[in-house]
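I am hoping you can look over what I have pasted underneath with an eye to the fold:
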Amino acid sequence: MFKPNFSVILSNVGNCCDRFCTEGYSAPFTLHQLFDRVSTIENVNGVELIGEFHITSANVNEIRNELERTNLKLVSIIPEHFAARKYGKGAFISKDAEIRNSAIVHTKEMMDAAAELGCPTVSLWPGQDGYDYFFQADYLKDRELFIDAIKQCCTYRKDINIAIEYKPKEPRNRSYASNVTNTILMTQDIGEKNCGVTIDFGHALVAYENVAESVALLKKYGDKLFHVHMNDNYTLWDDDMITGTIHTIPYMEFFYWLDKTNYEGYISTDQYPYREDSLEAVRESVEWMTAMVNVVNKMDKNEVESILATSDAVAASRMLRKYVFK
């Protein structure tokens, strides 16, 4: 029986803004209040923090107190490589050696904070490491810089996992860590056991992936699925909507393959409810995930595997209808 551990990116339950309403759609919350809000969500026992936004090397004790007070486990830290002006033309691939070094130093600081707080993973979203125009980028050199930087971080602390979160676009028009196969190749080039991949379900949808197949690929090529982010979208953009509201059946296959491949890491919400009550929207995502996992757990695994062995699409449809609507 699949029993996943759920966590929440702290800012998901806060005041979410977009590029049009930059002050956000609700009143702001303090760090203390954000921890309180996460702690009220049933079936959630973990939290994920963003460097500079929530955690720095200077406030580790404050974060420890919040974790102890709310009985939440810190499951991942996301270094801030995407919102600062200095990273506008790249973090790990910047042509400015000082900026590249700044990104590496910040990542190492977050690895140190993770180790101090008993957190196993630093999840890298290299949002600015890409390009926008033709003839703008040296594709080979940029990848060498990217791989070298992450390798430096991996070798700095082998007790902390580095998980690369891929996304095909945004904020750059094209990202180097753009899809699952591309990112698997990067982890193979980096060649460190503590280097793996974060699947963001919404990012994978925008990359036109069948996300269950992405899970299988990461299992086959080195058991490299280290972390998972959950949200939903219409496949055109990273809409960060309530999990399962659009891609219900693909989500069930995704959970089946997480179970089949023995995934034991955390599953974090990664959504930004702009106009909805953020706490209730995140709570609804967890409820959807719990409900879909319950359906998967009711499936007769012998029946599922028999269908997979025969590739019988009609039988697959009949089985799904039986479990979803009975």
Summary: The CA atoms of residues 39 and 325 lie 32 Å apart. Strands lie at 5-9, 44-50, 73-78, 121-124, 130-131, 161-165, 174-175, 195-200, 225-230, 266-269. The radius of gyration is 19 Å.
